[in-house]
Amino acid sequence: xxxxxVIVESPAKAKTIEGYLGKDxxxxxxxxxxxxxxxxxxxxxxxxxxxxxxxxSPDKKKLVSELKSLAKSAEEVWLATDDDREGxxxxxxxKEALGLRDxxxxxxxxxxxKNAILNAIQQPRTIDVDLVNAQQARRVLDRLVGYELSPxxxxxxxxxxxxxxxxxxxxxxxxxxxxxxREIDKHAAKSSFKAVAQFIVDGNKVLNAEVAKNFxxxxxxxxxxxACIGAMFSIKxxxxxxxKKSPAPPFTTSTLQQEASRKLGYAxxxxxxxxxxxxxAGKISYMRTxxxxxSQEAIDKAVSEIQTEFGQQYVQTRQFKTxxxxxxEAHEAIRPTNFNDRNAGGDRDQKRLYELIWxxxxxxxxxxxxxxxxxxxxxxxxxxxxxxxxxVFGDDYTPAKEAGTKTxxxxxxxxxxxxxxxxxxxxxxxxxxxRVYLESKDDEDDEDAKGMLPPLRVGQSLNLGQMKATEKFTxxxxxxxxxxxxxxxxxxxxxxxxxYAPTISTIVNRGYxxxxxxxxxxxxxxxxxLAKDQIxxxxxxxxxxxxxxxxxxxxxxxxxxxxxxxxxxxxxxYKFTATVEKEFDEIAEGRxxxxxxxxxxxxDFHKNITDIQGSSIVTFKTGARELGVDPRTGKKVSARxxxxxxxxxxGESTDEEKPQYANLRDGQLIETxxxxxxxxxxxLPREVGFFEDKPMTIGIxxxxxxxKHDDKYVSLTREDDPYTIDENRAIELIQAKRAESVSESLGxxxxxxxxxxxxxxxxxxKxxxxxxxxxxxxxxxxxxLDRAIELIQAKRTAEANKYIKEFPERPEIKIVNGMYxxxxxxxxxxxxxxxxxxxxxxxxEDCLALAGDEPAPAKGGAxxxxxxxxxxxxxxxxxAKAPAKKAAATTTKKTTAxxx
Length: 900
Known about the structure:
By secondary structure, the chain is an alpha+beta fold. It contains 22 helices and 34 strands. Strands 9, 10, 11, 12, 13, 14, 16 and 17 form an 8-stranded antiparallel sheet that branches. The protein is globular, with a radius of gyration of 36 Å. The two termini are 31 Å apart.
């Protein structure tokens, strides 16, 4: 046995580290936390300093036993979990669970390289209790909030179930998504007109210049173009000045998540999973950090690589300061462990993310890009003077107005127009860091792009090719993507690097938020063009509002958010949540006591919980909204949240006639659905036409939307919308189903028919009333009779070999040949058979012993005997219970980390 036992939390990390240490070291993994609060119950003693009652996870008991054994036989145990609060807590739980000394050696490193590991071994420390208590405070506070607040949601929200939950950070993230959705819904697009002139210079070169401000109305825009007929244009001034662009800092957790989303299209949890793999393989530094700092050693390595690849002129070292005041510890930014490694990673995803990290880190130590920016001011000399009053439309002019827009086509009240145009250009004199990397933005705007300008001089006259005034529309703030929500949370000081991905996963998994694409809508715009002293008006079309992989609140999410905002404002208050995060930081720094911090939070919170639960005033919340009156029946139409989701209702429960119900479609919200859209939901079932003189009806059943024809049902595909599907598409589906049915019969086997079909669990072969599933990699359309017979015979063989042994005297007991080895079936219960046991040689008594059952009783007196046995067993069990409380109390006392 090795003299030293090193324990880490990840098997991949263990494998990498073991390769760096000698034969005197054994490296084992704890596979994450070995202890935690139990899933059921509060498990926090709120009357005794908020002491948590931890337990070894059921799936970790065997592992803990193995680690205990290894620790006892080792001369030295080293705890080498991650260098953050979570990692410190894992080490502390290992110490407690394994019964290690308080001065057990704790080593930390920010990268998994040989030098880093060997250096850490030379500089061990003990467990940092302050870091442990900061993590413990977060865990306990989140348990208090979740355990006490979630049941309130179950009781007070109509349709609420145990699937509803509330959490300190997740509830704030949900509020951000809901409020952004409402901002978008309230936004009314306003139009204005942007005027851009195109001048022809030196025969074939183009100079684009624009009016600094947009015109508020179509009338103003057209009047300006009218005034420009016959105008003279000349260059008033040329202003050239040097400029520079500096590189972005190396990645933190949140900026990596944002940039991987923009450039690679990765979701937040996917980015972290890939980064974890790269870290454990020793390719990058630790990926959970909010520091932009690089060590001097890392900077020196980056400089060496830049000099080799690009030359000395591209070197410009920097030490970035973290803007986030609450950045944890003196950590490094995310960077490659070896800058000479241009490509790393085991698969395409890892290679792409590593390349992004390498470029960002290298660029941060490269020279600024040197630019030259030129601003050209062009004077307009109107043919009728600088200021004119002209009615360019005439009394009978009636321009087209598009419905649904704010376009105003009134006549201009004045002829005072801008007398200057501006053109801007940019030239890169020295590319610097741009040679490697340029940071992306959340909202790229093509109009901001500036190119090179043709040669120009002051006083130069310009020939107008054309001038266009194009209608532009204001846009609301975009919906949050995962990465932009992380950015917002970080800006507000809410959450930490390790919590961003789990927070977003929680609100999505709970059904409060969905991540989806939204197709754009089409709208018309007006464009006026002045060319050759003539003005033409055209109408074009553009698509707006399309979004990809954005976060949309669900009806459940909105109702839960509104309930929390109304009755638990502190929980969803941005400043309060950020303040709690700062208090965790202060606990980690040893400046405040974690139990006192929880005490200050819990009193008011618990009182509010008690008041709301016992209040008859706080009724069920359904998000109910009246939409209007059904013109056909004269009954009220309303939308609300129910047990199975959001629905629309015609009528009321107090009416003599039972109300009609229809579920909202995906993307429809209670607070925005219109009366017309609500009534359209009652259009099903609807008749779409006739086929073979029989009606085709579209409806939605237990298994989804369908078309019914000739008393037969054909499922619609995912692409088919039951509300818009037409007659031709319905016929297509019916005929396709018939074509499948024709090939259902493959032929005969042993004088009996062999057929195929599609069932609830996929395609199958049917023979003698038995269904045999077709392997996933095979297609029903290409299945032959010979292949079907093979599947039938394979099924027979499997069934013949299914039972290794049966017992006629106890037919409910069987030894089964399972997929993963033999096991014992006792009625509906399955019992594992030890690997070293020969299953075929087991007797009935052996099986009963494995199952923990008594042997079959003799006839008569069976009930009496079992009753006596039960009575005899009951007495010692009662005695055994007595010392349980004392043992539990001893365990609880050990759970709080204390400084030694």
